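Narrative of activities, Objective 1.

The group set out to show that a structural description can be obtained from nothing but a protein's sequence at a throughput compatible with the screening campaign. Below is one input-output pair from the validation batch, recorded exactly as produced.
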Amino acid sequence: MTEPFTHRVLPYDGMDDYLAGALPFLRDGIDSGDRVIVVTPPAGELLLRDALGPAAGAVEFTESSRWYAHPCRTLSDCLGQAEALAWQGRRLRLLGEPAWTGRDPLEVLEWQRVEALVNVAFSGTGASLLCAYARGLPPGVVAASHRTHPETLKGDKALANPRYMDPWAYSAECDRAPLNDPPAGAETLPVDLPDLYWVRQWVVDCARRVPLGGDGLQRLLVAVTEVVTNAMRHGHPPIVLRMWADPADRSLVCQVTDAGRWAPGADPGLIPPRYGGPGMFGLWAVRLLCSIVQIRTDDHGTTVRLRFRLPAPGGGSAPARPSTDVNTA
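Output recorded for this entry:
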């Protein structure tokens, strides 16, 4: 693979602005024999199909809300496709329009983190990623796009982005806000025995009071077991497990604290581990199992907070919430 990896942002004011950047990007990929994927809302697909004409048959279209379903899973799936194509001597070329509306602040923050870490995860794959951002999005979302993409596309010209941040520095900034204290009524269990059987039983009893749905209970048990095991192996007592329901974003929250200062190195399980290479498989797996994972370490110890989104009443999805760009606990 001789092509360099690129990750560019396409800010646009209207459809003419959007097409001026998107069409050359897509046509170049079609002409080069790349695997060309477009992730966009239905209206964007109709617009691009009309503009591309017969060439649209060489493009794979996916709806944004399906593609951008879970930060870690999307990152893992997309990286796997890029690596597989690189082994075949081909390139992944993806035009994506992230789904920002209807997300709560914590979700927005995690997707922004992924936008930054893409620059680390995809290094060496030769993939070409172009992320479209309408200027009408919340100002914080637009501003963050210039900090997470090395280049900005204007028409068919790629310009270095002076506001671009080191991905790990950006990720650390996402975690700068302290976590809110657990509510007074949180269920609490000191963990002082090496046998985790009773810990899992306690988690099951607490979880049965909320509608996790599907395989939620199994995912919860696996994630909690992994985090508690890590605390017992690498942390210091006291180790305390707490659980509560957070009505603000309809989540079941499980928190593990210990008195040690956890130092996971450069990557705290945020990048999909490469086969045969180093990586935080356990913590990465936990991130895949949970809706959101928050980690804080200071002089008082380490806190790992796991959040599991609960289904809305009636079995549907959680109600949409306006998206903002804030660091929140």
